[in-house]
Known about the structure:
- The protein is an alpha/beta fold.
- The protein has helices at residues 8-23, 41-51, 69-77, 139-149, 166-182, 187-202, 211-233, 238-252, 259-285, 289-302, and strands spanning 58-63, 84-90, 107-111, 125-131, 150-160, 307-315, 318-327.
- It has two domains: 8-165 and 286-327, Vaccinia Virus protein VP39 (Rossmann fold), CATH 3.40.50; 170-281, no CATH class.
- It is built from ten helices and seven strands.
- The two termini are 26 Å apart.
- Residues 31-35 have low confidence and may be disordered.
- The site of S-adenosylmethionine has 20 residues, from α1 and α3.
- S-adenosylmethionine binds next to α1 and α3.
- Pfam families: Methyltransf_11.
Amino acid sequence: MDFPGNTPADTAARRAAWTAYWATGGLHSCVGSFDGNYSGAIGAFWRDVFDRLPGGPLRALDLATGNGALPRLLWEHRKQVPGLEVDAVDLAQLAPGWLDPSQHAGLRFHAGVAMENLPFPDACFDLVGSQYGFEYALRDAALAEALRVLKPGGRLALVMHHADSVLVRVGRSELRNQAIVLAPEGLLPATAAVLPWIAKARAGIDPSGEPGALEARNAYNRAIQALATDIAGSPAPDLLVEARAWVNQLLAGTGADPGPSLEKLSAYRDGLVAAGLRTGELIEHALGAEQLQSLVQAIQAARPAARVEVETLQQAQGVLGWGLRLEPA
Ligand SMILES: C[S@@+](CC[C@H](N)C(=O)[O-])C[C@H]1O[C@@H](n2cnc3c(N)ncnc32)[C@H](O)[C@@H]1O
């Protein structure tokens, strides 16, 4: 049931890419799927999960929490009910800017924690949840851990990526676009090569006689022309259009010293590579119907008396994911 790609090096790269993302302060990573405030299918799924929880004190665990979108939703949903405690774990370092210890006592973030190896005793949670997180793990190990820490009558609720979702479709097109601008003959390498010559010209030195300058300018022009063709032919050219505008601005702002612009370019490229890694992960870990079924069977085998419910979460834009829940008997 597990995916490849979980060597220590893969884990380190994944942790670094997500740490960099969460450091920007974003609340979740699939912004378009939430209508900003959970008014769509995903919000409806979680509200239903929360509505079925018993009243009174409750301890919940969120797996692969990111900056805590799910704990925050649960906290808001249950703010009238005293006694809520939430533990939120993630492999990456986190920066939940919204967290206010005076408001959210009882909500604990645990960064650098893999869901395959949870630092909690057996049977201590009433709810174990995850939103676009559980499927990223080695699922056999993560499931064993989730069920170990879940109380016998507890609930498990998962929103997971769906192989036919709109997020996967958009992700594939983003990966194609990233590859176009990062390719050796693409916009970003061509910009890096032409930048020092532009800086020379801005310093008042005419580089036009130098063969390197001519070569760099021609390569840049070819990259710009190819990009225009790609933009015209792409059903979702946003990233390409954005990259072209960003480079235009960078070149316009370049002075006699190419250093600052080259640094900005390098940071921009690193950002694209990290975004590509996250998108690649999304696509790789999205579950098809058979994989979902094998997960359901594994849950059912571990908790034969409980009920497993699955649904496809969708709204006007298309399919957003799978919803899975384990309900006590
Ligand atoms: C798509 S984000 C989802 C974050 C959050 N649940 C949300 O809804 O915004 C996936 C998260 O899974 C985390 N992750 C990936 N593999 C993990 C693992 N084995 N254990 C814990 N967290 C993991 C990543 O660090 C990342 O923050």
